[in-house]
Specification:
Rossmann fold, 345 residues, 45% helix, six-stranded mixed sheet, DNA-binding, 434 Repressor (Amino-terminal Domain), 13 helices, alpha/beta, six-stranded parallel sheet, 15% strand, homodimer
DNA sequence: CTGAAAGCGCTTACAG
DNA sequence: CTGAAAGCGCTTACAG
């Protein structure tokens, strides 16, 4: 009757039989529990090797009610900021023995909801989420209320959860103050989707420029995607509406690449004819030509911190919600020193 | 005796009790099996909603002996090529109902081995691997012999497995021929770690240049990491050994960024004083200044194809090993037209 | 169309 | 130090 159909997988029971002990003993050996005689341990290990046994962590975790797996959902890893973030999260989790189930929302609210559902059905121990632009408290309440989680980079209004991000208002103020100090008087803010991060950066920019009496006109504040194409579109829209400003603040370095490219296409040289500044300070930005002035937002730190908070929360779900806000720093480079040059000329 | 300790998770059995059916019926409803009366189905769904039941896919998969999860191990997602690849793989897998367990080898052989072990213990249905530079057949035999898998971008000698990659010899030949046709006679090849991909690109380059009688001297072939820093190091090493060549082929676009930056630091303008060409054609490369001549290697296609092959193999493990080799294409841009300009001047 | 029973591969008290 | 039994949350034949 019992004809073998699939090539039966070798289990802990086979190892037990082959080494003449019970399955419980094999289990102890597998988890390196001390209370097993040395001889027994050796025989078990030999049997494992001989039979080609592979530990089934899923079965083990089902019993222990943990998965040692964390879900990481970001929008799109093609953005260098998220790539850095992802690497930092993985590094921190891997060091603590966690694996990482990853998914990308593409900044689409429904896709995000679906992916969170999938991840949660896989019984991850926790979730790190970079919410899409449109995500609302309701979405998270529904999916994540029973799951330890931390939000990164963008917080969600009325959703009380652990959060790690940079101080975007301060980041904006750093860049605004710099541009004001340099003497620019007509500043545009280009690219990036509507989000708390964008709103905060704009607010900071305005605050930093205010000391110099400089304002950012609504027509000179243009939202697009957080991408190169977004940068190109924003600049084209800007040029259609009127004169070239003397400085452009970009939502992020990746937007700035598009902006610079579109400027050149219009015969305008960034860093000479118009100043350009930005946010994130991606690793490549200092190597661009001209080197890009940018406010560093430290994705590695955000990622590492988020992993740390999540693990703490998994171990103690009843903790109060915490907010970790990192301080940004400004790196001034050639792209925002046009006035100096013009004056020197 | 039975005091409840943890807030007991709600299971299929609770749903069954609450809706007055057996657990088997609930299971049928959950999987949308047709043979359940409409009224029953509704009652079950109401109970699910009321109790806040969450399906435990891990438990289900343990029973069915599938995990609907695939492991993706690449070296480092901060490289745009791998980021594109990753997004393409996820898109293809997600569409087929698979989740993705991800890990990064950082191009370290031992780390890769460890991560493969972790992923396999989680009982993924299959693995997509971009092998580290040093990975040998032995490593893969040991870990992956019983697991459906496909290799991407780099193949491993003597390991007979599914493979998807671009034709690197042809890619090299395209760039070599272009540089030769443009009239360059002294060409260097900079950056990138020793690997089948690098060897093939160099071979192709030489073959493409050979028609013009141009050779790449061993001293002008410099290996480094596949990174911006690698590019900087390679260029510095090149300048130390002798005269500036009239054209530089970079291992990849990310290397080219470092090379261009180091050239400028040495007072040499890329695209004017020396031609630069490269491989990958990252999305940002056409927007750089000067726009970068590059051979496209189509990570989206490689990723999508790899996912397709893996799913086929999961469904039919006894298939012969397949090799899918994609054709590269060259995009000529401003960075490699220095001679024209010089002649025009 | 629905129910009772066995089992996926582990771990965890509990005895001995 | 080791073994027999129960159970994690599902699915899958098999009866009815």
């Amino acid at each position: 009757m019992a004809v073998d159909r699939a090539p039966k997988r070798v289990t802990i029971l086979d190892v037990a039989a082959a080494s003449g002990v019970s399955r419980a003993t094999v289990s102890l050996v597998l988890r390196d529990e001390p209370r097993v005689a040395e001889g027994t341990r050796q025989r078990v290990h030999e049997a494992i090797e001989r039979l080609g046994y592979v530990y089934d962590r899923r079965a083990a975790n089902m019993r222990t009610q943990r998965s040692m797996t964390v879900g990481l959902v970001v929008t799109d890893v093609r953005n260098p900021f998220f790539a850095e973030l992802t690497m930092a999260v993985e590094k921190a989790l891997e060091a603590r023995g966690y694996s990482m189930l990853q998914a990308y929302s593409l900044d689409e609210r429904e896709r995000e909801a679906r992916l969170l559902g999938v991840v949660i059905e896989q019984r991850v121990d926790g979730v790190i989420l970079l919410p899409s632009t449109d995500t609302e408290a309701m979405d998270l309440q529904r999916r994540l209320s029973a799951v330890p989680h931390v939000l990164i980079a963008r917080s969600v209004a009325d959703h009380d959860a652990d959060y790690v991000g940079v101080d975007n208002v301060r980041a904006g103020r750093l860049l605004g103050k710099h541009l004001g100090d340099e003497g620019y008087r007509d500043v545009a803010f280009l690219g990036g989707p509507r989000s708390t991060a964008r709103g905060d950066r704009l607010r900071g920019l305005r605050s930093g420029l205010a000391r110099h009496g400089v304002k950012i006109d609504a027509k000179r504040n243009i939202q697009t995607g957080a991408s190169r194409v977004g940068g190109i579109q924003a600049l084209e829209a800007l040029l259609e509406t009127g004169a070239l400003p003397d400085a452009i603040a970009c939502y992020s370095d990746i937007v700035a690449i598009g902006v610079a490219s579109a400027l050149r296409a219009a015969g305008i040289e960034p860093g000479r004819d118009v100043a350009v500044g930005s946010f994130d300070d991606n690793p490549g930005s200092s190597l661009q030509h001209p080197a890009l002035t940018s406010v560093a937002t430290y994705p590695e730190r955000v990622g590492a911190e988020a992993a740390r908070l999540l693990i703490e929360r998994i171990d103690a779900p009843d903790l109060e919600a915490r907010r970790v806000i990192l301080a940004p720093t400004l790196s001034v480079r050639a792209s925002s020193t046009t006035l100096e040059r013009r004056q020197a000329a």
